[in-house]
Amino acid sequence: MLLLSIVLEVFSTQMMKLSDGFTKLLPTAAFGVGMLACFYAFSKTLTMLPLGIAYAVWAGLGLVLTAILSVVLWKEHIDLQMVIGFVMIVAGCVLLNLRR
After folding, report:
1. Rounded to an integer, what distance in angstroms lies between the CA atom of residue 67 and that of residue 9?
2. I need a surface site. Which of 15, 28, 36, 49 has the fewest CB within 10 A?
3. Over the Cα atoms of the chain, what is R_g?
């Protein structure tokens, strides 16, 4: 459920970019539906995982995946400092999961 929630959040963020400030109907609707589904899946995750760990993984991996897609889909710039930051976020998520 956590992975589904992350994928839905990343999808919704891409739809928000496509919505052009919520001026385009279909991407705006996709954003809304995607975020509702995302938070539903995340709420189910919280019945199985502690909030702190679940939220750290959700936010961290969502951020990294969104950043990767911003480079691939939107041709946004990424530099070494950003890559190092992303690696540190992923390492933090791994460390949080190893303690269980």
Report:
1. 13
2. 36
3. 15
C-alpha–C-alpha distance, residues 10 and 63, integer Å: 8
Token pair of 43, please? 């709420």
Written as six digits, the tokens of 14 are 């891409």
Q: Find tokens 């760990």 and name the residue.
A: 53
pLDDT in tens, the chain (100 residues): 999 999 999 999 999 999 999 999 999 999 999 999 999 999 999 999 999 889 988 998 999 899 999 999 999 999 999 999 989 988 888 888 787 6
Helix-helix angle 51-74:25-45, to 10 degrees: 150
Residues in the chain: 100
